[in-house]
Amino acid sequence: xxxxxxxxxxxxxxxxxxxxxxxxxxxxxxxxxxxxxxxxxxxxxxxxxxxxxxxxxxxxxxxxxxxxxxxxxxxxxxxxxxxxxxxxxxxxxxxxxxxxxxxxxxxxxxxxxxxxxxxxxxxxxxxxxxxxxxxxxxxxxxxxxxxxxxxxxxxxxxxxxxxxxxxxxxxxxxxxxxxxxxxxxxxxxxxxxxxxxxxxxxxxxxxxxxxxxxxxxxxxxxxxxxxxxxxxxxxxxxxxxxxxxxxxxxxxxxxxxxxxxxxxxxxxxxxxxxxxx
Length: 277
Ligand code: GLU
Prior knowledge:
single chain, alpha/beta, Carbamate kinase, 2 domains, eight-stranded mixed beta sheet, disordered C terminus, binds glutamic acid
């Protein structure tokens, strides 16, 4: 299969990324915690440095951060994985997470705000409008909205499920110009890069989407680090004309490189962005 999309479409998508005024950045639990499930200050500060590099370029950033259940697990030292335990752990982890974000953004005199959402909030037009108005006000004030699912009240029926889908809905709903999903895997690969040394990074996904989907479907979510939901979220966003990139959270200056049009991670090209049809 082809490891890239049509060259014209890739270039057009990179230009959109360079021009992005509003960026949704999503960071996963692995990008924030260590092996004992404690919040990793170095990782968190690095993510904040990256977000601030976009703010310094006068771009709006909405930051979707996981890590509440993970950070709560490390703090409480409780590992039972019932839904009730995860919900309770999320409340411990979420406040700890926000405390650390407040400190970390504070290094740059930047203020943060916490927004917790459920599927109901996204589906209900009034609630969604209220959410959007709050975001617009915060952005106007130069405050960084940090968004997570409201795990304390999100039981099966009202769960969004994971923050890959949440960030995709948010990116579309707030008219963003770019979605970046940061993960411990550096993008979409031809096989699991953690197990296969010959795994190749897929640079861009466009008309080769069906091939990429087949490839991703073949690998189980557990061994592949949940890449399916990242691919599905990125694809949905790109179908709305918004470029999406899945990239490695530990890569130096990862966000700055993406908005400089560099070939980082895997880029999902909006189908209508193609210039060589
Ligand atoms: N809301 C969950 C948390 O903060 C994350 C869900 C996910 O893994 O994407 O722990």
